[in-house]
Every structure is written in structure tokens, then in C-alpha cells.
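Field log, afternoon session.

UNIT: design team B
ACTIVITY: writing a sequence onto a fixed backbone
BACKBONE:
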């Protein structure tokens, strides 16, 4: 079977690699550098399993910037393009997804279109109505950056927003490529699948926000956060996981997905969803105030990436802290190996870690590492358990 995948980020590339174990996959991306890397069996994203599969496995995978070549003869077109949150419209920007749908209808008119990009509730129904084509369905991804292929090889569940033969066949393709075969599979309506994705990520944001607010309370009242979290988490209904405080929830998914879910509540009474969104801002305000109370002359930001094992800087929580303390006139310097420029949002980028540690009066680290063990007295972090 020939399958087309559009977008060579974490979602698209992990799906392309998974399916290319057993089928012909043609991957499309607008970035020639990404295409060249995949063509050379190198991963353009930081993911150990993807890198290993590209280098060692016999995959039937080609990459191209040519839509005609990518879509020709495809039975499935998988869309994994970005849907960034647009604060002006208060919605996801789905223009890239819509453009791929138009290209797929023109170049592969018989292909089923599988949307992996996160979209608002009701998006697939609108696309079906506008195109007059019913074989468009949403299959949410539940992948972690840096572990995307692993999460496809050992998936927690497969959700497909349709119950047609093409949708059931697609679920079979995902299971075929996985190592773990005993996978819960749920076939739902399109809007229900879209809601599952947004509610899943918003619940994760809620959990992060909850333990961050617990930590804020403990800090303000001189209490031991670690002891409180351990005691709370011993309740099996709560569980001892995903409970390590930080500077807020960040990364590509949780901030934008929680805001999009809130936008879908326009005509529905709610209090909790807006509180989850607002809590993230409140946490950053609180952490920034804690730092300013120490009256540092130079604050060093150790890593801007959203999480360990990632190269994604987008919406990382520490950037919100950085903006707040810079607005109060504090000089900020940055150590981030991913950056190639000398300045980032007006702050100096220092590539020598020793020089960075020497110049900073206080070092912000969302997660502690051995790199900072020699300057532990300078480090400000809420990482209590050494977990991401």
C-alpha cells in the first residue's frame, strides 16, 4: 500500500517510520533541509528511536518537497502539519491542514485523508461539508517529544474519529506497525475524537497546574513541598506520577490545546477550563516574583527547551519567566546549545557553559542536571524529584 505523510515533525516522521516498516511511504515537507536529512537516513527531530530506525531498519520511506510525487497513487494521506494557536482569532490556525486537504483532493482524489494535526472540535465536519468528501477523519496522536516513535510502537490507545471500512483499515495499519499489539481501539464520531485530544491534553495541563499551585502554597508558607506531594500522591486515586513542580506547563501542545478547548466553550458554562489556562500565568507571575525578591544582577537561563530530550523552544515555560524579569530591568543571559544566533529576544546567548555559570548571579533551571552541580548554590529550580 502507498501512503503519503505531510509534515516531518515529531508526529509526521514517527508515523511515517512506523508505517514504512510494512508499506511504501512518501513523506512531504516544505523544508528541503528536513527532506535531505530523511533522505540521508538522519532524523531532523531529536528522537533516539526514530534515529535508530532510519539508520538501521529497511524502511520503504522516501521524502520529497514535491506534492505531486508525494500524493500520486496514495490510498491514505496523513496530515501532520502545525496548527499553531492564533491569539487574535482565539483559534488554531488550520490553514496548513486545509491547504493539504485541497492538494490531496486534487492529486489523490480517491485517498482517505487522515488528520493527525490537532484541530478544533467540529473541524472535520466542516471539511467534509466544504469538500463534499466524507473520507476525511481525525486520528489524534498521543505522543511525547523525544519519545514519539516509542509511543507509536507501544501506544496507550488508538482513537479513530470514524467507523468506516477505511477508518478501521487505518487502525489496523497502526497496530501492524506497533510492537505492542494489545491496544485499546476506539472508533468514535469525528467531533468526539477531536474532543478526546483536547480534553486529554487539558487534563495533563490541569495536573501540572495543580502540583505547581501546591508548590506555590508551600513556598509562600514555608512548608516542605516534597513531603506534601508524596503524601498526596500515595492515594492510589491520585498516583505518584506527573507531579514534579516546574515553572509552568509549556511546550507545543498543552498551552495551545488548553486555550483551544477554552475557545470551544464559548457558549457552554465553565469555570475549571479557564482556571487551568489562568493558573499557568499565575504560576509564572509567582516564580518571577520569587526570583526578583532575591535581587539578582544577572539571571542566567539554563536551557530554553520545553523538556529534556527535546529541541523544541516553542512556548517553553521558562520563557515566560524570562520575559517577566527582563521587564523589571534585570539582565538575562541564556545558555542554550540549540540556538545558533547570538541574541534571543534581546538577551545575550552564551555558548560556553563555564562562562555562563561564572557570569550569572542566579541560574534558572526548570530541571536540574549534573551540568549545574558545581554551582548548586546559584541554581533556582522547583525540580524536586529529578523527573521531567
Amino acid at each position: 500500500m502507498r501512503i503519503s505523510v505531510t509534515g516531518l515533525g515529531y508526529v509526521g516522521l514517527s508515523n511515517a517510520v512506523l508505517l514504512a516498516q510494512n508499506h511504501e511511504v512518501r513523506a512531504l515537507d516544505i523544508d528541503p533541509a528536513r527532506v535531505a536529512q530523511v533522505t540521508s537516513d538522519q532524523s531532523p527531530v531529536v528522537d533516539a528511536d526514530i534515529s535508530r530506525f532510519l539508520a538501521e531498519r529497511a524502511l520503504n520511506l522516501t521524502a520529497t518537497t514535491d506534492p505531486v510525487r508525494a500524493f500520486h497513487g496514495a490510498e491514505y494521506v496523513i496530515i501532520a502539519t502545525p496548527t499553531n494557536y492564533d491569539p487574535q482569532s482565539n483559534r488554531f490556525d488550520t490553514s496548513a491542514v486545509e491547504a493539504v486537504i485541497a492538494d490531496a483532493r486534487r492529486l489523490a482524489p480517491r485517498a482517505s485523508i487522515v488528520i493527525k494535526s490537532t484541530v478544533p472540535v467540529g473541524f472535520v465536519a466542516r471539511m467534509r461539508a466544504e469538500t463534499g468528501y466524507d473520507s476525511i477523519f481525525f486520528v489524534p496522536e498521543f505522543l511525547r517529544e523525544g519519545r514519539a516513535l516509542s509511543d507509536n510502537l507501544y501506544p496507550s490507545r488508538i482513537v479513530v474519529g470514524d467507523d468506516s471500512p477505511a477508518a478501521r483499515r487505518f487502525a489496523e495499519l497502526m497496530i501492524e506497525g506497533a510492537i505492542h499489539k494489545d491496544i485499546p481501539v476506539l472508533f468514535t464520531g469525528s467531533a468526539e475524537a477531536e474532543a478526546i485530544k483536547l480534553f486529554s491534553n487539558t487534563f495533563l495541563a490541569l495536573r501540572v497546574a495543580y502540583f505547581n499551585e501546591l508548590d506555590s502554597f508551600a513556598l509562600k508558607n514555608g512548608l516542605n513541598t516534597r513531603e506534601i506531594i508524596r503524601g498526596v500522591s500515595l492515594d492510589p486515586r491520585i498516583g505518584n506520577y506527573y507531579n514534579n513542580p516546574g515553572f509552568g506547563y509549556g511546550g507545543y501542545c498543552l498551552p495551545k490545546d488548553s486555550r483551544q478547548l477554552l475557545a470551544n466553550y464559548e457558549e457552554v458554562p465553565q469555570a475549571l477550563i479557564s482556571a487551568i489556562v489562568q493558573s499557568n500565568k499565575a504560576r509564572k507571575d509567582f516564580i518571577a516574583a520569587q526570583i526578583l525578591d532575591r535581587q539578582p544582577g544577572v539571571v542566567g537561563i539554563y536551557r530554553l527547551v520545553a523538556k529534556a530530550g527535546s529541541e523544541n523552544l516553542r512556548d517553553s515555560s521558562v520563557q515566560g519567566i524570562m520575559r517577566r524579569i527582563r521587564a523589571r530591568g534585570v539582565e538575562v543571559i541564556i545558555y542554550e546549545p540549540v540556538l545558533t544566533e547570538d541574541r534571543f529576544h534581546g538577551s545575550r546567548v552564551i555558548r560556553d557553559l563555564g562562562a555562563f555559570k561564572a557570569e550569572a548571579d542566579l541560574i534558572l533551571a526548570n530541571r536540574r542536571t549534573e551540568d549545574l552541580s558545581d554551582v548548586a548554590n546559584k541554581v533556582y529550580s522547583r525540580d524536586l524529584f529529578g523527573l521531567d
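LOG NOTE: The first strand starts at residue 2 and ends at 6.
NEXT ACTIVITY: expression trials, pending approval
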